[in-house]
Amino acid sequence: MTHEDERPIAANAQDRVTWALRRAEWAVQARKDQRLRPLGIAAAQYTLLMSVHGDPGLTGAELARRLNVTPQAVASQVARLEERGQLERRPHPRHRHVQELHLTGAGLDSLRDADAMIVEIEQRIAGKLGPKKAAQLRTLLDEVADVVREA
After folding, report:
1. DSSP secondary structure code for residue 45 in this structure
2. Where does the record locate the signal sequence feature (predicted)?
3. Domain extent for 79
């Protein structure tokens, strides 16, 4: 198959802010996976557990929207975490076909252990940047998120 479209890719494509954000995200995710692996938790599972901890009673569909993944991806992770006794489904008080997600005691323990590993990554980043730059970065990233949501 040939591509006859002659439109060039911008010379600075890999210097864009969005590309820099993606490279940083890949690096952080890779480090999270590396640090969490000995605990038997993937970075995606940590994110899911953290989300349920922060907002107990989320449904799988709500969690999928929040994490920007497919409902099937959430269902697969939920099933794994449920098999391990870290997450449980409870009936929704008003909708009989909807199930809410809640951490179990084991899930909270796992989340605490995982979060200790993530704190080390955070501290390394903040230590390299220093307090002022780390605060600026958080502010800038919040602004980026706001701009993208408004678009």
Report:
1. H
2. none
3. 35-119
> Is 14 part of a structural domain of the chain?
no
Query: Into how many domains does the chain fold?
Result: 1
pLDDT of residue 2: 59
The model's pTM: 0.82
- pLDDT score at 93: 82
The answer to whether the CB of 110 falls within 8 A of the CB of 49 is yes
pLDDT in tens, 80-117: 999 999 999 999 888 888 899 999 999 999 999 999 99
Please report, for the domain that includes residue 47, its CATH number. 1.10.10.10
Contact 144, 17 (CB under 8 A): yes
Task: Using the Cα atoms of residue 87, residue 91, residue 94 and residue 98 in order, give the sign of their dihedral.
Answer: positive
**CA separation, residue 82 to residues 73, 89, 96, 106, 107 (Å):** 14, 8, 20, 10, 9
